[in-house]
Amino acid sequence: MMRVLLPEFAFGWAESLLLAAIMSSTDSASVFSILNSSGVGLKQRLKPTLELESGSNDPMAYLLVILLISVIESGEALTGKLFFDSALTLVMQLGVGVAAGFAIGYATVKIVNAINSSNEFLYPVMVIACCFFAFTLTGLCGGNSYLAVYVAGLVVGNSKLALKRTITTFFGGFTWLVQIIMFLTLGLLVNPHELLVIIVPGVLLGVLMILIARPVAVFLCMAPFRQFSFKAKAYVSWVGLRGAVPIIFATYALMSPQVVHARFMFNIVFFITILSLLIQGTTVNTMAKWLGLDEVVDKKIFNVELPEEIDAVMHEQTITASDLADEMFLSEMTIPEQTLVIFIKRGDKYIVPKGNTRIYIGDKLLLISDKEKLAKA
CA-CA distance, 207 to 205, in Å (whole number)? Predict the structure, then answer.
């Protein structure tokens, strides 16, 4: 394509594969941010599927980018031996990355739970330190540092952790801060007048990726999974949004003097990312509704969570006409065993309930239950 439209920026096979590797990373956080802001959920377990895809393709894209830049810098031809050596390096990085991620993840959980500090804000600092340790140690051992941190995060996030809410809240704000700094920094690398040159090839490549390349890849990869309908696969094909990660990977090419037309490649990646956000990002909700995959997500009324060490669960219930008889008090309601009503929200008022508290249609109840009893109920 480049050879026809812009001969002076023609790519070879290695450069073309590098561009493909850079653009292969997707950003599910953008999809969920759009869905959550509008109160829309997804059916058929599409949310964890997109999270798994986005989290796992970043390390793979990083590996491919580093390998292809190394091939370009070495000046070697794309031979069978080179492909074999690259595949061996890929397997080693993946294996070491996964092993280190699990080991450091479980070690992080043990360390954080063993700390007995009166200052709860030191716990997020310890988790950050463990992230840096996982990244550095895995790299020194020849593994994929990004994959190690991702796996360690999965282990920590799905384990019982002391002061988990404090840690989660801290990382939520910290993530947004880092994203703002990252986008500001990346914006300084872009010269708007240079984007005018790549509008035509950028649009063609973007449309090719959105309408052809990604759907083909998604349907082939999801073919063995019969639980996903055709509409679900079509939705996954559509929401492959590009985020900041491809732009960051493009800066790796900029730092290598051996990569031909690295600046042009960076502009292409930046343009396609913006195009993806404009086309796919603005139609995330519309496509979910059109395919019948959307579902309403109940927003929490009571922002209350229990510590991990308490083996109970809190849940909310809105009282409807079918729940009440005339002149009903709380003591007259049928409540599952081992369940307590601890708060009632009526309009803008919060009420501490008693047995003689009258219940009305539309009241929001906050309940706490034993997990086993709640499951049976």
Answer: 6
Secondary structure of residue 127 in the 3-state scheme: helix
Question: Which residue segments constitute the domains of the chain, with CATH numbers given?
Answer: 2-296 (1.20.1530.20), 312-376 (3.30.70.1450)
- CA-nearest of 14, 10, 182, 171 to 86 is 14
Alpha carbons 331 and 49: distance in angstroms, whole number: 44
Q: Is pLDDT at 283 greater than 60 in this prediction? A: yes
| Confidence (pTM) | 0.74
CA distance 294 to 41: 6
Q: DSSP secondary-structure letter at 330?
A: G
Separation in Å, CA 273 to CA 24, 198, 248? 11, 13, 11
Q: Are 86 and 66 a contacting pair, CB within 8 Å? A: no
346: phi then psi, degrees, rounded to nearest 5? -130, 105
Taking a C-beta distance cutoff of 8 angstroms, is the pair 244, 183 a contact?
A: yes
Q: At residue 121, what is the residue type?
A: F
pLDDT tens, residue by residue, 167-218: 888 888 888 888 788 878 887 888 888 888 888 888 888 889 999 999 999 9
221-230, 333-342, 360-369: segment of lowest average pLDDT: 333-342
Following DSSP, what letter does each residue of 22-74 receive, concatenated?
Answer: HTT---HHHHHHHHHHTTEEESTTHHHHHHHHHHHHHHHHHHHHHHHHHHHHH
Structure tokens at 12: 């070879």
Could you tell me which residues come within 8 angstroms of residue 186 by beta carbon, excluding any fewer than 6 positions away? Answer: 244, 247, 248, 251, 270
At residue 219, the pLDDT reads 93
pLDDT digits (tens, 9 = 90+) for 233-251: 999 899 888 888 888 888 8
Which residue type sits at 53? E
Q: Given a cut of 60, is residue 22 above it in pLDDT?
A: yes
User: Do 22 and 269 contact (CB within 8 A), yes or no?
Assistant: yes
Rounded Cα distance, 107 and 102, in Å = 8
At residue 107, the pLDDT reads 94
